[in-house]
Design a protein that fits this description.
With about 250 residues, this protein is α/β, with parallel strands linked by helices. The protein has helices at about 40-45, 70-75, 90-100, 105-120, 135-150, 165-185, 195-200, 220-225, 230-240, and strands spanning about 1-10, 15-25, 30-35, 55-60, 75-80, 155-160, 185-190, 205-210, 210-215. The protein has 9 helices and 9 strands. The strands form 2 sheets. It has a 6-stranded mixed sheet with strand order 5-6-7-3-8-9, sandwiched between helices. Helix 6 (about 165-185) links the parallel strand 6 (about 155-160) and strand 7. The structure holds adenosine-5'-diphosphate and magnesium ion.
Length: about 250
Protein backbone atom coordinates (compact mmCIF):
# COMPACT_ATOMS: atom_id res chain seq x y z
CA UNK A 1 0.00 0.00 0.00
CA UNK A 2 2.82 2.41 0.93
CA UNK A 3 6.43 1.96 -0.09
CA UNK A 4 9.14 4.43 0.78
CA UNK A 5 12.30 3.46 -1.05
CA UNK A 6 15.62 5.07 -0.10
CA UNK A 7 13.63 8.17 0.74
CA UNK A 8 15.39 11.25 1.95
CA UNK A 9 14.02 14.70 2.75
CA UNK A 10 16.40 17.60 3.23
CA UNK A 11 15.73 21.25 3.87
CA UNK A 12 18.80 23.07 2.60
CA UNK A 13 21.71 21.30 4.19
CA UNK A 14 19.75 19.82 7.11
CA UNK A 15 18.22 16.39 6.82
CA UNK A 16 14.68 15.99 8.13
CA UNK A 17 14.29 12.33 7.19
CA UNK A 18 16.12 9.31 5.84
CA UNK A 19 17.49 7.81 3.85
CA UNK A 20 14.99 5.14 4.84
CA UNK A 21 12.99 2.25 3.48
CA UNK A 22 9.56 1.47 4.84
CA UNK A 23 6.73 -0.63 3.44
CA UNK A 24 3.25 -0.83 4.90
CA UNK A 25 0.76 -3.50 3.92
CA UNK A 26 -2.88 -2.77 3.24
CA UNK A 27 -5.22 -3.31 6.17
CA UNK A 28 -2.56 -2.99 8.85
CA UNK A 29 -2.37 -0.43 11.62
CA UNK A 30 1.10 0.95 12.23
CA UNK A 31 2.25 3.46 14.86
CA UNK A 32 5.20 5.74 14.17
CA UNK A 33 6.88 6.72 17.38
CA UNK A 34 10.07 8.53 18.34
CA UNK A 35 11.43 11.68 19.92
CA UNK A 36 10.32 15.10 18.79
CA UNK A 37 12.06 16.15 15.57
CA UNK A 38 12.89 12.59 14.43
CA UNK A 39 10.92 13.01 11.19
CA UNK A 40 7.50 11.46 11.94
CA UNK A 41 5.41 14.34 10.55
CA UNK A 42 7.72 14.67 7.57
CA UNK A 43 7.16 10.99 6.79
CA UNK A 44 3.38 11.47 6.86
CA UNK A 45 3.63 14.59 4.69
CA UNK A 46 5.63 12.61 2.13
CA UNK A 47 2.95 9.92 2.10
CA UNK A 48 0.18 12.41 1.43
CA UNK A 49 2.27 14.39 -1.05
CA UNK A 50 2.46 17.66 0.89
CA UNK A 51 6.24 17.50 0.54
CA UNK A 52 8.32 15.74 -2.11
CA UNK A 53 11.35 13.61 -1.34
CA UNK A 54 14.77 15.12 -2.02
CA UNK A 55 15.88 11.62 -3.05
CA UNK A 56 14.28 8.20 -3.37
CA UNK A 57 10.79 7.07 -4.27
CA UNK A 58 7.37 7.24 -2.63
CA UNK A 59 4.87 4.68 -3.92
CA UNK A 60 1.26 4.91 -2.82
CA UNK A 61 -1.35 2.31 -3.73
CA UNK A 62 1.32 0.59 -5.82
CA UNK A 63 2.29 3.57 -7.94
CA UNK A 64 4.73 6.45 -7.83
CA UNK A 65 2.42 9.43 -8.35
CA UNK A 66 3.20 12.09 -10.92
CA UNK A 67 2.67 15.69 -9.80
CA UNK A 68 -0.77 15.85 -11.46
CA UNK A 69 -1.96 12.65 -9.72
CA UNK A 70 -1.82 13.99 -6.17
CA UNK A 71 -5.16 15.85 -5.89
CA UNK A 72 -7.01 12.71 -6.98
CA UNK A 73 -4.91 10.47 -4.76
CA UNK A 74 -5.45 12.60 -1.68
CA UNK A 75 -9.15 11.79 -1.80
CA UNK A 76 -8.20 8.22 -1.03
CA UNK A 77 -6.25 9.30 2.05
CA UNK A 78 -7.72 10.69 5.28
CA UNK A 79 -5.43 12.97 7.29
CA UNK A 80 -5.80 14.25 10.85
CA UNK A 81 -3.25 16.49 12.54
CA UNK A 82 -2.72 17.30 16.20
CA UNK A 83 -4.77 20.47 16.37
CA UNK A 84 -7.32 19.00 14.00
CA UNK A 85 -6.58 21.50 11.23
CA UNK A 86 -10.24 22.55 11.01
CA UNK A 87 -11.13 25.84 9.32
CA UNK A 88 -11.97 28.17 12.24
CA UNK A 89 -14.63 30.16 10.38
CA UNK A 90 -16.59 27.09 9.26
CA UNK A 91 -19.01 25.03 11.37
CA UNK A 92 -18.20 21.42 12.19
CA UNK A 93 -20.73 20.39 9.53
CA UNK A 94 -19.16 22.61 6.86
CA UNK A 95 -15.67 21.41 7.78
CA UNK A 96 -16.67 17.77 7.61
CA UNK A 97 -18.56 18.02 4.33
CA UNK A 98 -16.24 20.37 2.45
CA UNK A 99 -14.59 17.75 0.24
CA UNK A 100 -17.86 16.00 -0.58
CA UNK A 101 -19.45 19.31 -1.59
CA UNK A 102 -16.43 20.13 -3.70
CA UNK A 103 -16.94 16.81 -5.48
CA UNK A 104 -20.61 17.64 -6.06
CA UNK A 105 -22.22 15.02 -3.85
CA UNK A 106 -25.97 15.58 -3.59
CA UNK A 107 -27.40 16.88 -0.30
CA UNK A 108 -29.16 13.66 0.66
CA UNK A 109 -25.99 11.63 0.32
CA UNK A 110 -24.01 14.20 2.32
CA UNK A 111 -26.59 14.27 5.12
CA UNK A 112 -26.70 10.48 5.29
CA UNK A 113 -22.93 10.15 5.44
CA UNK A 114 -22.72 12.86 8.08
CA UNK A 115 -25.23 11.14 10.37
CA UNK A 116 -23.55 7.79 9.89
CA UNK A 117 -20.10 9.17 10.74
CA UNK A 118 -21.26 11.31 13.66
CA UNK A 119 -22.61 8.14 15.20
CA UNK A 120 -19.40 6.26 14.49
CA UNK A 121 -17.23 9.06 15.93
CA UNK A 122 -19.67 9.48 18.84
CA UNK A 123 -20.19 13.16 18.11
CA UNK A 124 -23.64 14.48 19.10
CA UNK A 125 -25.21 15.91 15.94
CA UNK A 126 -26.30 19.00 17.91
CA UNK A 127 -22.63 20.03 17.90
CA UNK A 128 -22.40 20.07 14.11
CA UNK A 129 -23.57 23.67 13.88
CA UNK A 130 -20.79 24.97 16.11
CA UNK A 131 -17.50 26.42 14.94
CA UNK A 132 -14.25 24.85 16.18
CA UNK A 133 -13.75 27.53 18.88
CA UNK A 134 -17.11 26.51 20.40
CA UNK A 135 -16.04 22.88 20.75
CA UNK A 136 -13.78 21.17 23.29
CA UNK A 137 -10.43 19.75 22.17
CA UNK A 138 -11.82 16.22 22.15
CA UNK A 139 -14.91 17.24 20.18
CA UNK A 140 -12.73 19.06 17.66
CA UNK A 141 -10.70 15.90 17.12
CA UNK A 142 -13.91 13.91 16.59
CA UNK A 143 -14.90 16.43 13.89
CA UNK A 144 -11.43 16.20 12.33
CA UNK A 145 -11.76 12.41 12.28
CA UNK A 146 -15.20 12.67 10.75
CA UNK A 147 -13.84 14.95 8.05
CA UNK A 148 -10.94 12.59 7.36
CA UNK A 149 -13.30 9.63 6.99
CA UNK A 150 -15.94 11.41 4.92
CA UNK A 151 -14.88 10.19 1.48
CA UNK A 152 -14.27 6.68 2.86
CA UNK A 153 -10.49 6.71 2.28
CA UNK A 154 -8.50 3.50 2.04
CA UNK A 155 -5.67 4.95 4.06
CA UNK A 156 -5.87 6.97 7.25
CA UNK A 157 -2.93 9.12 8.43
CA UNK A 158 -3.13 10.48 11.96
CA UNK A 159 -0.41 12.82 13.21
CA UNK A 160 -0.56 12.91 17.02
CA UNK A 161 -4.35 13.20 16.86
CA UNK A 162 -4.71 12.94 20.63
CA UNK A 163 -1.53 14.78 21.57
CA UNK A 164 -3.15 17.96 22.87
CA UNK A 165 -5.87 16.30 24.98
CA UNK A 166 -5.99 15.76 28.73
CA UNK A 167 -5.59 12.16 29.95
CA UNK A 168 -9.26 11.24 30.52
CA UNK A 169 -10.52 12.67 27.23
CA UNK A 170 -7.56 11.09 25.57
CA UNK A 171 -8.33 7.64 27.00
CA UNK A 172 -11.95 7.94 25.82
CA UNK A 173 -10.87 8.86 22.32
CA UNK A 174 -8.25 6.11 22.28
CA UNK A 175 -10.97 3.55 23.00
CA UNK A 176 -13.26 5.06 20.38
CA UNK A 177 -10.47 5.16 17.79
CA UNK A 178 -9.61 1.53 18.49
CA UNK A 179 -13.27 0.58 17.99
CA UNK A 180 -13.48 2.64 14.77
CA UNK A 181 -10.32 1.04 13.36
CA UNK A 182 -11.69 -2.37 14.21
CA UNK A 183 -14.98 -1.65 12.49
CA UNK A 184 -13.70 0.06 9.36
CA UNK A 185 -10.74 -2.17 8.59
CA UNK A 186 -8.63 0.64 7.07
CA UNK A 187 -4.91 0.90 6.60
CA UNK A 188 -3.78 3.22 9.39
CA UNK A 189 -0.52 5.06 9.93
CA UNK A 190 -0.61 6.86 13.25
CA UNK A 191 1.99 9.11 14.84
CA UNK A 192 2.17 9.24 18.61
CA UNK A 193 4.84 9.85 21.19
CA UNK A 194 3.16 7.51 23.65
CA UNK A 195 4.15 3.86 23.58
CA UNK A 196 1.04 2.65 25.43
CA UNK A 197 -1.15 4.51 22.92
CA UNK A 198 0.84 3.01 20.05
CA UNK A 199 0.34 -0.49 21.42
CA UNK A 200 -3.37 0.14 22.06
CA UNK A 201 -4.09 1.41 18.55
CA UNK A 202 -1.61 -0.35 16.29
CA UNK A 203 -0.48 -3.89 15.57
CA UNK A 204 3.03 -2.81 14.79
CA UNK A 205 5.33 -0.09 16.04
CA UNK A 206 7.97 1.70 13.99
CA UNK A 207 10.42 3.41 16.29
CA UNK A 208 12.36 6.27 14.73
CA UNK A 209 15.30 8.37 15.78
CA UNK A 210 17.18 11.08 13.89
CA UNK A 211 15.31 10.49 10.63
CA UNK A 212 15.84 6.72 10.49
CA UNK A 213 13.89 3.63 11.52
CA UNK A 214 15.60 2.08 14.53
CA UNK A 215 13.29 -0.88 15.07
CA UNK A 216 10.01 -2.18 13.80
CA UNK A 217 7.75 -4.79 15.36
CA UNK A 218 5.14 -5.41 18.02
CA UNK A 219 5.69 -3.75 21.41
CA UNK A 220 6.73 -7.04 22.97
CA UNK A 221 9.68 -7.25 20.57
CA UNK A 222 10.82 -3.76 21.46
CA UNK A 223 10.84 -4.86 25.10
CA UNK A 224 12.38 -8.27 24.59
CA UNK A 225 14.78 -7.74 21.72
CA UNK A 226 15.78 -4.08 21.58
CA UNK A 227 17.79 -3.55 18.40
CA UNK A 228 20.09 -1.04 20.06
CA UNK A 229 20.54 0.76 23.38
CA UNK A 230 18.37 3.65 22.15
CA UNK A 231 15.33 1.33 22.08
CA UNK A 232 15.86 0.31 25.69
CA UNK A 233 16.30 3.94 26.72
CA UNK A 234 13.17 4.98 24.85
CA UNK A 235 11.05 2.19 26.33
CA UNK A 236 12.37 2.83 29.83
CA UNK A 237 11.72 6.57 29.54
CA UNK A 238 8.03 5.82 28.89
CA UNK A 239 7.82 4.12 32.30
CA UNK A 240 5.05 1.76 31.21
CA UNK A 241 6.46 -1.00 33.37
CA UNK A 242 6.87 1.15 36.48
CA UNK A 243 3.26 2.28 36.27
CA UNK A 244 1.88 -1.20 35.89
CA UNK A 245 1.97 -2.36 32.32
CA UNK A 246 -1.25 -4.05 31.13
CA UNK A 247 -0.67 -7.83 31.30
CA UNK A 248 -0.99 -8.30 27.54
CA UNK A 249 1.85 -5.83 26.98
CA UNK A 250 4.11 -7.05 29.75
CA UNK A 251 7.39 -8.53 28.57
P1 LIG B 1 8.55 15.10 14.28
O1 LIG B 1 7.20 15.11 13.65
O2 LIG B 1 9.08 13.72 14.48
O3 LIG B 1 8.61 15.88 15.54
P2 LIG B 1 9.32 16.57 11.91
O4 LIG B 1 9.07 15.61 10.80
O5 LIG B 1 8.33 17.65 12.10
O6 LIG B 1 9.57 15.78 13.27
O7 LIG B 1 10.72 17.27 11.67
C1 LIG B 1 11.91 16.55 11.42
C2 LIG B 1 13.07 17.51 11.28
O8 LIG B 1 12.92 18.28 10.11
C3 LIG B 1 13.17 18.51 12.43
O9 LIG B 1 14.52 18.73 12.72
C4 LIG B 1 12.51 19.75 11.86
O10 LIG B 1 13.04 20.91 12.45
C5 LIG B 1 12.89 19.67 10.39
N1 LIG B 1 11.87 20.27 9.52
C6 LIG B 1 10.59 19.87 9.36
N2 LIG B 1 9.93 20.63 8.48
C7 LIG B 1 10.81 21.57 8.08
C8 LIG B 1 10.74 22.69 7.16
N3 LIG B 1 9.61 22.97 6.48
N4 LIG B 1 11.86 23.44 7.00
C9 LIG B 1 13.00 23.13 7.65
N5 LIG B 1 13.13 22.11 8.51
C10 LIG B 1 12.06 21.33 8.73
MG1 LIG C 1 5.41 15.96 14.32
Amino acid sequence: MIDLIAVEKRYGSSRALGPLDLSLEAGRRTALIGPSGCGKSTLLRLVIGLVRPTAGHVRIFGEEPAEADWPQLRRRIGYVIQEGGLFPHLTARANATLAARHLGWEEGRIAHRLTELAELARLPTTLLDRCPAELSGGQRQRVALLRALFLDPELLLLDEPLGALDPLIRADLQDDLAAIFERLDKTVLLVTHDLAEAAHLAEEIVLMEGGRVVQRGPLRELFEQPAEPFVERFVRAQRILDLGCPPELAP
